[in-house]
Structure formats: structure tokens, C-alpha cells
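Exercise 3.2. Students should predict the tertiary structure of the chain below and write it as C-alpha cells, then compare their answer with the key that follows.

Predict this chain's 3D structure.
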Amino acid sequence: TVLKSAWTSWVLLILILLSFLDGSLGFMTSGSAYLWKDLFVMSGGQFLLPAWLQVIASLAPIIGLIISVQLLWIGIHRLAFCSAVVAGVAFAALSFQSVRLAAGMLLFFIMAVESTYGPLTTCTSLITAESFPTELRASGFAIVSVTAKVSGILASTLVEFLKADETADSWDVNVLTNYILSLLAATVLFAILVLMTPAQNGEGKQLRDFVRPVLGKRTQSFGYGATNSWAEPTDSDSDSFGDVTASHSMPA
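Answer key:
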């Protein structure tokens, strides 16, 4: 009973931690992606039209993924942390009005942020998938994902709520700066939380697709999710987790 209670508390703690982790990432990515169009219009299109600046910036996530693949050797957690640092520095620069009005600098820092979208999202998904036991992986991942979606909706809605009207020029300078600082705060929170997640999660450990039944017991005729519909006990059934081949034999 004590071990079960400790296990339940640990899973709940991980669930809360990952919900805040993915929620902060969702707030940052959705809020910033929805904001870029306004910043490009406000820059005045000094050397390119805002639409072309948006097209060029859209290439940044692919570039970020290509670079991050070469850095996988440092580990998922360190890669996510470094990506968050890059995004944080870029948000800090974008909080200055002089940077936002210079189209070239604006494009550079926006591409710096967008280049972290892919690595941050991928690393977070890997960490989340490997943080839950087989019985709870689908449910845990779903709860964490819903949290991220809700925070993303909130961030996007705030962009329209904080403007005086639907035009990009209706942003108040101080309000816009504070909103960008809120994106910076979400990025800093993500960087802190990603270092708090268990170090082994996300680093490629083997995941079980099914739960091995208790030795000598027959499961229900119709399984659900990660639970087998039938399994014959074998000599290798020494724990509650196993591979598919050892726990998926059907009765004659």
C-alpha cells in the first residue's frame, strides 16, 4: 500500500510538471506565431513586403530541425534547454521598440525564435512519452497535450484582446512590450522545468506497447488500450511489463 501510494504520488507529480512544461511551450509557440504578422506589418516593410518577410521566416523551423539533428549527442534535455535559451534571448531583443522597427533585425530574431519551435516541440514530446508507465502513457500524454492546447488558445486570444482593433498598428507600445515579456517568461519557465524532469526520460529508453498480466492470471477476453486481451504465463513473466512477443499469444 505504501509503495502504491508513493507510485501514485510520483505519477501525479510528473503529470503536473509536464503539464506546466508543455503548457508554457504552447503559450510561447502559439502566442509568438500569432504575433509575428503584426510585427512585420509594424516594421513598415523597409526592404521587403511583410508577406515576404513572413514567407522567409517560415523556413526557420526547418532550419532549426536540421541544426538540432546534429546536436542530438548532447542529449534531449540539454538540447531543449539550449533551444529555450536561444528563444529567450531573441524575445528579450524583440522587447525593444527599436529592434521591432528595424526589418532586418526583426526578421533575424523572429527566425531565431521560430528555429526553436521544432526542437522544443519534439524534445517535449519525447520526454512526455517516456515519463509515464505503459498503463498510463496514452492518458497522461493526452492530459498534457490538452493543457498545451488550452495555453496556446489563451496566448493567441490575448493577441487580439490586447489590441485596440484588428489592425496591427493598433498595438500600444507598452502593451506589446509586456506581451513579448510574457512570452519570454513562458520560455524561462520552460527552461527551468525541462531541467527538473527525470534525466533518463526522452533519451531513447525502450517503451513497452502492452502490459504483461500477473503470472498465472488470465486477463479479460477483450483487452483495451495497453492491456492484453489474452496472455499465457511463461517462465519469463517476472514483472508487470514485457515485450509484445512474450505477452500476446492467443489461446488455441
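Discussion points: Residues 214-252 have pLDDT under 50 and may be disordered. The chain has nine helices and two strands.
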